[in-house]
Amino acid sequence: MASKLINADLIPASFYHKTSIAAGVLLPLGVFTEGSLSLPFDLLLGVALPVHSHIACNYVIADYIKPPALNGAARAGMMAVTAVTLAGLLKLNLTGPGLSASVKQLWKKSE
Ligand code: HEM
């Protein structure tokens, strides 16, 4: 299990494709709903996005970083990035404005 988390390119591709579809479906659902209606989409997206980017970046690491020591360091670094992202998005969704409201703020005029 731990080995599959750090070598996430070994996770079945069918699961990875599902995370891509989830990211593509959940983001508009979150953005086009308001307030507490967005929360379930934001919470799911807060997991789907880091899992998607974790597996995807492990594909890139497997393809482009061949020396074993560097490859291991890159995978460990990616694991840390994913863990921090998961925690940050959870905090944003539970104690802040939420992921989709934060995205929408990009298009709001600052006061
Ligand atoms: C709403 C956000 C996102 C959506 C809808 C999305 C969707 C997709 C889709 C459809 C693919 C093609 C692969 C497939 O067939 O499944 C893909 C690939 C990829 N995504 Fe995302 N993505 C999102 C966010 C991200 C983020 C935040 C990252 C972070 C780095 C990322 C990294 C990648 C990479 C590296 C690939 C290529 C993987 C490979 O080598 O095949 N994506 N994404």
Automatic annotation (TrEMBL):
Keywords: Iron, Membrane, Metal-binding, Mitochondrion, Mitochondrion inner membrane, Transit peptide, Transmembrane, Transmembrane helix, Transport. Heme b binds at H52. InterPro entries: CybS (IPR007992), SQR/QFR_C/D (IPR034804). It holds the Pfam family CybS. It is a multi-pass membrane protein. The keyword Nucleotide-binding does not apply. Belongs to the CybS family. It is found in: Mitochondrion inner membrane. It comes from the Eukaryota. Its main location: mitochondrion. One of its GO terms (molecular function) is metal ion binding. This is Succinate dehydrogenase [ubiquinone] cytochrome b small subunit. One of its GO terms (biological process) is tricarboxylic acid cycle. A ubiquinone binds at Y64.
